[in-house]
Design a protein that fits this description.
The protein has 3 helices and 4 strands. With 105 residues, the protein is of the alpha+beta class. Strands 1-4 form a two-stranded antiparallel ribbon. A two-stranded antiparallel sheet has the order 2-3. Belongs to the cytochrome P450 family.
């Protein structure tokens, strides 16, 4: 929290009005938000999808019309995808190209 506050005071100033356009100048705050969303997604599952045709995904056969749920909560805690997945480490996103404002998830 101290590091985020220091970044905001350094970039925005203490008595200035914060503008949305200034978010691009706050990389550590962006990393904190991304890390919070990784550990605590707003929804644990993405909206259900239905397979349009028979397919094979990562070795699993999925039949046409099968409802598929993506467990975002589990993905955010997967030790194969994240180092120390249960620890809150915003630094892991500082050099990341992930961007929640566009189409990247």
């Amino acid at each position: 929290m101290a590091r985020v506050k220091a970044e905001i005071f350094q970039i925005v100033g203490q008595n200035k009005k914060f503008e949305e356009s200034g978010i691009d100048n706050l990389p550590y705050m962006q990393a904190v938000v991304k890390e919070a969303l990784r550990l605590h997604p707003p929804l644990p599952f993405l909206f259900p999808r239905r397979a349009m045709h028979d397919t094979n995904f990562m070795g699993y056969d999925i039949s046409e019309d099968t409802q598929v749920l993506v467990n975002v909560w589990a993905i955010g805690r997967d030790p194969e995808s994240w180092d120390d997945p249960l620890d809150f480490k915003p630094e892991r996103f500082l050099n990341s190209k992930s961007d929640f404002k566009r189409t990247m998830f």
